[in-house]
Write a structure and sequence with these properties.
- The chain has about 240 residues and is an alpha/beta fold.
- The chain has 2 domains: about 5-15 and about 100-245, 3-Layer(aba) Sandwich (Rossmann fold); about 15-90, Putative phosphatase, domain 2 (DNA polymerase, domain 1), CATH 1.10.150.
- About 45% of the residues lie in helices and about 10% in strands.
- A 6-stranded parallel sheet has the order 3-2-1-4-5-6, sandwiched between helices.
- Helix 1 (about 15-30) packs across helix 5 (about 70-90), helix 3 (about 50-60) crosses helix 5 (about 70-90) and helix 5 (about 70-90) runs parallel beside helix 7 (about 125-135).
- The structure holds xylulose-1,5-bisphosphate and magnesium ion.
């Protein structure tokens, strides 16, 4: 019986990666860097989860830039902190909106007593900004557990964030469904044993999702249809049907 839905954030709750990319590029300028991540660059860089890890990965391909940096850890932390400030301001100003069907899906989970959690690689301030913009100041309270960013040792595709969320929710993997947009997220969730629905985003539409219970363009279908298509036993039966009518 499905007792909880575990939501990814970037690319799933909202198409936010273009805002991240813009924020990275603005932060580079603030720090006097001539770097510019194009959409094509960013599609490749997104193979690396985590903004700080992504900056380090980029530097690994630009050794000449590394030579100019005295304290690499402090440099990465500082640039990423600037990026997060820029990103959260953009989101608070309304740059992001929930993907089609997400608001209705969350409303259905509330009506049906299905629990909700967030399992994301993104930094916690980014989640707060998105949920605040979408739901007001109580947005974070919609989710029992919000497992984000550096709260786990290893980011997606490692299963850490999903294992920590399951532990926090005191649920078994088969009692949950994960909703993701990327291969990294799919691998993280399925490695944790969680059936996963994938809604590919603008940066992940070319990835493979063989392990997914369902790949769907969006979540506009009703929850029973989505769970049915994912071939996941939804034992809500008539309660969901009554929701539909
Ligand atoms: C997607 C990520 C994050 C964001 C950037 O997270 O990999 O790193 O791209 O956010 P999700 P940060 O698991 O929600 O898809 O710069 O805060 O890492
Ligand atoms: Mg994602």
């Amino acid at each position: 019986m499905i007792k909880a839905i575990l939501f990814d954030v970037d690319g799933t709750l909202s198409e936010t990666e273009e805002i991240h990319r813009r924020s990275f590029n603005q932060a580079f300028g603030v720090h006097g860097l001539t770097w510019h991540w194009s959409r094509a660059d960013y599609r490749k860089l997104l193979d690396v989860s985590g903004g700080k890890e992504r900056i380090r990965f980029y530097l690994s391909a630009h050794p000449d830039d590394v030579l100019l940096i005295n304290d690499l850890d402090e440099f990465v932390r500082s640039v990423h902190a600037t990026k997060t400030d820029i990103y959260t301001q953009l989101v608070e100003d309304g740059a992001a909106e929930l993907r089609p069907g997400i608001r209705e899906l969350i409303a259905q989970t509330i009506s049906l007593g299905i629990r909700r959690a967030i399992a994301t690689t993104t930094s916690l301030p980014n989640v707060e900004a998105l949920l605040g913009a979408a739901y007001g100041r109580d947005g974070m309270k919609l989710f029992e557990i919000i497992c984000a960013g550096d709260s786990v040792p290893n980011k997606k595709p490692a299963p850490d964030v999903y294992l920590a969320t399951l532990e926090g929710m005191k649920l078994r993997p088969d009692e949950c469904i994960a909703i993701e947009d990327s291969r990294n997220g799919l691998v993280a969730a399925t490695t944790a044993g969680i059936p996963t629905i994938v809604t590919p985003g603008i940066y992940t539409d070319d990835q493979s999702f063989d392990e997914a219970a369902l790949v769907t363009a969006d979540l506009k279908a009703s929850l029973p249809e989505i769970l049915g298509e994912a071939n996941v036993a939804n034992t809500f039966g008539s309660r969901i049907l009554s929701l539909q009518n």
